[in-house]
Design goal:
By secondary structure, the chain is α+β, with helices and mostly antiparallel strands. The protein has eleven helices and 15 strands. The chain folds into three domains: 3-221, no CATH class; 223-300; 318-490, Heat Shock Protein 90 (2-Layer Sandwich). The strands form four sheets. Strands 4, 5, 6, 7 and 8 form a five-stranded antiparallel sheet that branches. Strands 10-12-13-15-14 form a five-stranded mixed sheet. A hairpin with a 2-residue loop joins strand 12 and strand 13 (407-413). The two termini are 57 Å apart. The site of adenosine-5'-diphosphate has 19 residues, from helix 9 and helix 10. Adenosine-5'-diphosphate binds next to helix 9 and helix 10.
Length: 491
């Protein structure tokens, strides 16, 4: 994909993420405002209804007749009375209007009178008058402090029932004035919510006001599901875009690696072909049939180059095999040390420095695995070839073979440049080569060797791992199921 088009996609993705974040924030803000208003209304209703209940509760106290009690409660604790009382209170905004109500309680009825007066002269509002026909009824002038206790406990109970646990305080005003009679709120307390003032005793001596210090967490708590789902949605959108970009990046890397592979391969294939044709031309041109020593020399060159060509073709063929279900393996008993010794013997021919050492630690007893001799040999030779290829000075490669918990563990420890942690998983990927300094690889390769090794080890139900620190060499550890173990399992 072209870079310009790619940048356009990145910009689109960034805009999509920013837009959805902004929209979410606006939506949540609106919800927060609405929820706040709703909570404040609920609190207001809570205080108002507590005050109403408190005013009329006193009328029922001491009455022995259940019918009387029920009559009082059904009138004064009804939402209709609450509405009527509220509406009458709102009439205050009419200029010159005052109102009061009087209650007369008889044995078989309640008489309620609402009085509205509109005058040009401002009047002091009258206090409600309660008339009792039966002198043995309770004294309606209930002790004020008892009334306050009842009011406080009623509000606390309702707050608890509504699941509100944030600290709440009260203030008591002289009725209709701003004079504070008592309060339990500390002076510097924050007032996130302050209720209207409500008269809470029958004589309307005092007004009650509720103060809450925190309403934000209450609103947030009620919006918790919206908040979590919004956050989840944003995370999902970001994760989806991230996965998409990662996939796209991987595809780009793969495409580049494939291109590199093709150009590398072409170059690598051309070199031996060129050498062979030069050798053949020389034989023809200089009639080397008369010079058997030089002829032998040129034939040796041709043979070596053909072998190289053969190996390269083999690798490319294996590349195809690792794509599908894998090659058909011919399983047979394979003695690991003997196989390693044979591979080491061949690989020693590739050593160029007389100080290079490939050391196979002798083991006490032979270890056997079930596997394909050709593929197991390829695994060992690729790992040894890499150690030789990437070694910077005299090579020191130590190969160790042990039996651990029913598995044959073969380690290849070299003193080469090592592999940085960030590339250690990737080296087993197809076409991956550790980036060279200065972008030019001084060691030729296709990034296929370790991928091939991993696939083949997997085919043998084994595992391969890498331990390395940059500059401190690599240890590749191949683990294969021991043949003894397999025999015990199957028998
Ligand atoms: P190739 O050798 O053809 O590049 P491989 O798949 O065999 O491909 O290796 C992948 C990469 O791992 C190499 O490019 C190299 O950078 C790194 N590597 C493999 N073996 C060694 C080793 N023994 N020491 C240091 N680096 C290694």
């Amino acid at each position: 994909m072209k870079v310009g088009r790619l940048n356009f996609i990145y910009i689109l993705i960034a805009i999509a993420i920013i837009m959805s974040t902004v929209l979410q924030i606006i939506w949540l803000q609106q919800l927060y405002k609405k929820q706040r208003v709703q909570i404040i209304n609920e609190m207001e209703h809570l205080v108002r209804s507590s005050a109403q209940e408190n005013v009329y509760k006193v009328l029922a106290v001491g009455r022995t007749s259940l019918r009387e009690k029920t009559r009082i409660e059904s009138l004064f604790l009804s939402p209709q009375w609450e509405q009527l009382y509220l509406a009458a209170g709102n009439m205050k905004s009419v200029k010159g209007l005052t109102w009061y109500h009087s209650i007369t309680i008889r044995d078989d009825s309640i008489h309620l009178r609402l009085d509205f007066t509109v005058t040009d002269h401002l009047q002091k509002p009258k206090k409600p008058v309660s008339v009792y026909t039966n002198p043995t009824d309770i004294d309606i002038k209930t002790n004020d402090s008892l009334s306050l206790i009842s009011m406080k406990s009623s509000v606390a109970k309702k707050l608890q029932m509504a699941g509100i646990s944030s600290p709440a305080y009260f203030r008591i005003y002289r009725h209709g004035t701003s004079k504070i009679i008592s309060s339990d709120a500390p002076a510097a307390v924050s007032r996130a919510y302050v209720s209207k003032r409500y008269s809470f005793n029958l004589e309307q001596n005092y007004d009650y006001q509720l103060i809450m210090t925190d309403i934000f967490s209450l609103v947030v708590y009620q919006l918790r599901f919206y908040l979590v789902s919004s956050a989840l949605m944003l995370v999902l959108i970001c994760a989806a875009f991230y996965a998409l970009l990662r996939l796209q990046l991987q595809q780009r890397l793969f495409a580049t690696a494939k291109l590199d592979f093709t150009s590398n391969m072409t170059h690598e294939l051309k070199t031996p072909i060129a050498s062979i044709s030069v050798a053949l031309q020389a034989i023809k041109k200089f009639s080397l049939f008369n010079d058997p020593l030089t002829l032998q020399n040129y034939l040796d060159i041709g043979e070596t180059e053909l072998q190289r060509l053969n190996m390269m073709i083999d690798k490319v063929l294996h590349l195809d095999q690792t794509d599908g279900p894998g090659p058909l393996l011919t399983y047979q008993l394979f003695e690991v040390q003997a196989g390693l010794e044979q591979v080491i013997c061949t690989m020693r021919l590739q050593l160029t420095n007389p100080d290079d050492i490939i050391f196979l630690k002798p083991s006490i007893e032979p270890y056997f695995v079930y596997g394909d001799t050709v593929f197991l040999t390829n695994i060992f030779s690729t790992l040894i070839e890499n150690a030789i290829k990437y070694s910077k000075g005299p090579l020191m490669l130590v190969i160790d073979c042990t039996l651990q918990r029913g598995k044959v563990v073969i380690s290849f420890k070299d003193n080469g440049p090592g592999i940085e942690k960030m590339y250690q998983d990737k080296v087993f990927d197809r076409f991956f080569r550790v980036p060279a300094q200065g972008d030019v690889h001084d060691v030729k390769g296709f990034g296929l060797g370790l991928h091939y090794v991993k696939e083949m080890v997997k085919q043998h139900e084994g595992d391969i791992s890498l331990k390395s620190d940059a500059g401190k060499g690599c240890t590749f550890i191949v683990t294969l199921p021991s043949a003894d173990q397999l025999v015990t399992h199957t028998s």
